[in-house]
Amino acid sequence: MQRLLAFLLSFACLAAHAAPPQISDHAALLRLVEDYARSQLAGQPGRVSIEAGPLDPRLRLPACQALQPYTPSGARLLGKTSIGLRCTAPGRWNIFVPTRIAVETTYVTSAAPLAAGQVLQATDLAVLFGDLGSLPAGVITDPAAAVGKSLRFSIGAGQPLRQDQLLAPPVVQQGQSVKLVFHGPGFTASNEGRALNGGGEGQIIQVRTPSGIVVSGVAQADGTVRVSPSRP
Fold first, then answer.
1. DSSP state of 22
2. Is the dihedral angle over the CA atoms 54, 58, 63, 64 positive or is it negative?
3. Strand intervals (E) in 111-158
4. Residues 6+ positions from 76 with CB-CB distance below 8 Å
């Protein structure tokens, strides 16, 4: 009995002096976030630099065996942003890590004032080098992606060009006769019709068939209009 009591007392003493729970190392967490961002930007043209942190030194997070970095909804992996980091085992916690991401590469600007509807030529464009994180979303990095397209609205000289500012050249003109191609499960059929509106590749075109039915389809690069069966 005395031996048992001595054992229990010694166990209680050890428990009282046990090491505190391990705390996650901030530096290791930041490296994990940077590695995650680097993997997400793999293949991105240009020079990429990533700096995560700092974290509040007062932040004490329990050590984690299952860490999962992620991109929060609506976040952009450019410029000043945040990357999520959550623990799923043994405990659960979630933090957002401030992160600075720079992607230095070429981007396209207007070489002179450009008018709405103007079809862009190579001489209308200039190529600069800078950080995409400081530029609008959707900025064009290759002049070839802009040449031959027209502007939705006028812009001044030296303005970065964005994808949403450009219209693809029309492949279907309003009033022209077009070929309708119907695609469905296990079949393909075609018909002729007259386009009720014009548009570029990928845009929606309404077509009136000889029987008077109006159908909608997607303009293709060859000038045909592809129609998919409507879902019930």
1. P
2. negative
3. 125-131, 150-151
4. 137
Report strand pairing: 204-208 vs 170-172.
Answer: unpaired
For residues 130-159, one letter each, b for 16 or more C-beta atoms within 10 angstroms of the residue's C-beta and e for the rest, the string is bbbbebeeebbbebeebeebbbeeebeeee
Q: For residues 93 and 220, what is the distance between their CA atoms, to the nearest angstrom?
A: 49
Q: 216 and 205 in contact (C-beta within 8 Å)?
A: yes
- Contact between 168 and 140 (Cβ < 8 Å): no
- Alpha-carbon gap, residue 198 to 114, rounded angstroms: 23
The predicted-structure confidence for 4-29, as pLDDT tens digits, reads as follows 444 444 434 433 333 344 678 999 99
pLDDT in tens, 107-163: 999 999 999 989 999 999 999 999 998 998 899 999 999 999 999 999 999 999 999
Rounded to an integer, what distance in angstroms lies between the CA atom of residue 8 and that of residue 155? 82
Q: What domains does the chain contain, in order, with CATH numbers?
A: 20-103 (no CATH), 104-167 (3.90.1210.10), 170-227 (2.30.30.760)
On whether the CB atoms of residues 38 and 52 are closer than 8 A, the answer is no
Token pair in block for residue 218: 């997607």
